[in-house]
Write a structure and sequence with these properties.
126 residues; mainly alpha; Recoverin, domain 1; 7 helices; 2 strands
Length: 126
């Protein structure tokens, strides 16, 4: 869903990500997060909590937070979960526009290049 939100609607989040991403590689390391949060005096989080948060945010489990993962983590706190965004995300999975998401549609979306979910994980989602 994060990758489907129009860029003009998340400009502040993009600017924040860019500011934290010191080396400009499009991925945040734990060190970049620690440094970035030093600038936010209102956020008090210790390193162990930050590492746990990173594990949750890092959906592809590569040890880094990429732009889409960062945006996804920020969605709920920025009121982006509006009906039109949810419908757009649903339509991404509902390839045949039937109003429901079939096992095959879910498999097509979650076993591509972006995602590597197993057949068992897809069954668990259903």
């Amino acid at each position: 869903m994060a990758s489907r939100i129009p860029e003009d609607q998340i400009i502040l989040l993009r600017q924040t990500f860019t500011k934290i991403d010191k080396n400009g590689d499009g991925q945040l390391t734990i060190d970049e997060l620690v440094d970035g949060l030093k600038d936010c005096k209102e956020i008090k989080i210790d390193l162990s909590d930050l590492k746990r948060a990173m594990l949750v945010i890092d959906s592809n489990q590569n040890g880094l937070i990429d732009y889409s993962e960062f945006i996804a983590a920020c969605l709920e706190s920025h009121d982006y979960l509006k009906d039109n965004h949810l419908r757009q995300a649903f339509s991404y999975f509902d390839k045949d526009n039937s109003g429901s998401i079939s096992r095959d549609e879910l498999r097509t979306c979650l076993q591509g290049e972006e995602f590597l979910l197993s057949e068992e994980e897809i069954n668990n989602l259903l």
